[in-house]
Design a protein that fits this description.
The longest helix is centred in the C-terminal third of the chain and has 15 residues, at 116-130. This protein has 166 residues and is an all-alpha fold. The chain is built from eleven helices and no strands.
């Protein structure tokens, strides 16, 4: 079992100082498998609200945004998007994530050819970024229009599916 998947371990791992080391593993100099695991561990640790602030403060947002790019394998993109989605539950993080340029690459992940799970995670990340943040929501609409993707429609369909339990 991965230690960061156990809720009891999450606070202990963060208190032990693992977050900055995990952030360093997100860098472009790391192998894709290492980036995949580091982003996944940060996603698990971010389930704790206190850790969300620590993860952002450790400088995780710029490298997570970089991992959304087309050079990254889809699994790395998915874990990066999922981590950004969780981090964007914090209003300050929403602003930081948008300022780091996350919205355009998240929108590009919705284009045809991306796997369905990646599209769903990217849609959820965009929805969370736009939640209670009209500036981000407008940026999502603009980025979607320039990429030829109706992001707001995708977000509404996802919300309907979630309400129906599908």
């Amino acid at each position: 079992m991965i230690l960061s998947e156990n809720a009891d371990n999450v606070a202990t791992i963060a208190a032990a100082g693992a977050i900055p080391s995990l952030v360093q593993l997100l860098k472009a100099t790391s192998a894709a498998e290492v980036q995949l695991s580091a982003a996944g561990a940060l996603h698990n640790l971010a389930q704790n609200a206190d850790n969300q602030v620590m993860i952002a403060a450790a400088g995780s947002i710029p490298p997570l945004v970089q991992l959304l790019g087309t050079i990254s394998p889809s699994g790395v993109q998915r874990n990066a998007a999922a981590t950004l989605m969780i981090l964007s539950a914090d209003a300050d993080n929403q602003v930081t994530i948008a300022a780091a340029g996350a919205i355009p690459p998240l929108v590009l992940l919705l284009r045809p050819g991306s796997d369905d799970l990646l599209k769903e995670v990217a849609t959820r990340a965009l929805e969370t970024l736009g939640h209670s943040n009209t500036k981000n929501r407008a940026a999502v609409a603009v980025a979607g229009a320039s990429a030829g993707v109706d992001v707001l429609e995708k977000m509404e369909r996802l919300q309907e599916r979630l309400q129906l339990g599908i």
